[in-house]
Amino acid sequence: MNLAPQVATAELSDADLDAVSGGQAGGGAAVAGAGAAAGLHVEAGTLGVTAGAGVAVSAAGVAADAHLHAALS
């Protein structure tokens, strides 16, 4: 017996996807923007730490990202 959950999937057209996601900024026209990113990776013995951050600004809005990852090997 298969106890894995079943998930129904459906295809969306590009127009449907634009309607769900809020459409395209500028009505399809090219929109200029700016962005920046920085990252750091440090290893000491068996410990590794990686961190990073980024930001992007355009007429559609501002997007930002930050992450931290640590691992023992």
How many angstroms does the end-to-end distance come to?
A: 38 Å
Which percent range fits the helix content? 10-25%
- Widest sheet, order of strands: 1-2-3
Based on secondary structure, the structural category is: mainly beta
Q: Helical element count?
A: 1
Q: Helix-strand pattern, N to C? A: HEEE
Biggest sheet record: 3 strands, antiparallel
How large a portion of the residues is in β-strands, by DSSP E? Answer: over 45%
Low-confidence sequence ranges: none
Shape: flat
The value of Rg in angstroms is 20 Å
Mean pLDDT: 79
- Count the E strands: 3
Report on the architecture of this protein.
- The protein is mainly β and 73 residues long.
- It contains one helix and three strands, in the order αβββ.
- Strand 2 and strand 3 form a beta hairpin.
Short description:
The chain has about 70 residues and is mainly β.
Descriptors for this entry?
3-stranded antiparallel β-sheet, 3 strands, 11% helix, 73 residues, mainly beta
Furnish the topology, listing elements before pairings.
Elements lengths: L13 H8 L11 E12 L2 E12 L2 E12 L1
Antiparallel strand pairs: 1-2, 2-3
